[in-house]
TrEMBL record:
The keyword Transferase applies. GO terms for molecular function: succinyl-CoA:3-oxo-acid CoA-transferase activity. NCBIfam families: pcaI_scoA_fam. It comes from Sphingobium lignivorans. This is 3-oxoacid CoA-transferase subunit A. Pfam families: CoA_trans (PF01144).
């Protein structure tokens, strides 16, 4: 079996990056972001990237770094409301955006990994989302056709991996990561812990190692809180 473990994020991405490529990047808000791999893409300097991700990070964190360095040409995303840099670049015509409903985005990625080139959904019918897309009626209801999403590279964040590349995710950090692992031509996973093959109970594996080409220990595990909400402590 080929050794999937790489000593650092730079070597995990070696030979995979090129200008104009499409990258899937896991995460939802600040949870489950491949926060060690993104800085290496920035250092590599590849440009004209199409990035598929639920959002584009937050100020100073995650994919924001690639926006700040002007390496992203197009985002395929669901939520962009908290990223001022994203907003500014889009409104200035510097960034192309394909805005996709969140459930549709997840299903397009899943379809890409499953080899399903298109599917129908009611979400977006009669709105801007459906403009230019074929529609069809099923049981008297109109549905819009959506197409799969696939990528040259998927970068994902997991909690634990074994040396065969089997992955476990921790709670909400799972989010888009498992589906993206299946939809990339090459998948690189950064993880918090690597254990020997055979350690995991097979029933506890979230992503089988067949979908994972390279694994590397995370060098950044900040676990930031995007919005801290507090209230005064009640008097006892």
């Amino acid at each position: 079996m080929a050794n999937k473990i790489h000593p650092d994020p730079a070597s995990a991405l070696s030979g995979l990056l090129f200008g104009g490529m499409t990258i899937m990047s896991g995460g939802f808000g600040l949870s489950g972001n491949p926060e060690s791999l993104i800085p290496e893409i920035r250092r590599a300097g590849v440009k004209d990237l199409t990035v598929i991700s639920n959002n584009a990070g937050a100020d100073g964190f995650g994919l924001w770094m690639l926006l700040e360095s002007r390496q992203i040409r197009k985002m395929i995303s669901s939520y962009v409301g908290e990223n001022k840099l994203f907003e500014a670049q889009y409104l200035a015509g510097e960034l192309e955006l394909e805005l996709t409903p969140q459930g549709t985005l997840a299903e397009r990625i899943r379809a890409g990994g499953a080899g399903i080139p298109a599917f129908y959904t009611k979400t977006g019918v009669g709105t801007l989302v459906a403009q230019g897309k074929p529609t069809e009626f099923f049981d008297g209801e109109e549905y819009v056709r959506e197409t799969w999403l696939r990528a040259d590279l998927s970068i994902i964040k997991a909690w634990r991996a074994d040396s065969a590349g089997n992955l476990m995710f921790r709670k909400t950090a799972r989010n888009f990561n498992p589906n993206m692992a299946t939809a990339g031509r090459v998948t690189v996973a950064e993880v918090e812990e690597i254990v020997p093959a055979g350690t995991f109970d097979p029933d506890c594996i979230h992503t089988p190692g067949i979908y994972v080409d390279r694994i590397v220990l995370s060098t950044i595990n900040e676990k930031r809180i995007e919005k801290r909400t507090t209230r005064p402590r009640e008097v006892a």
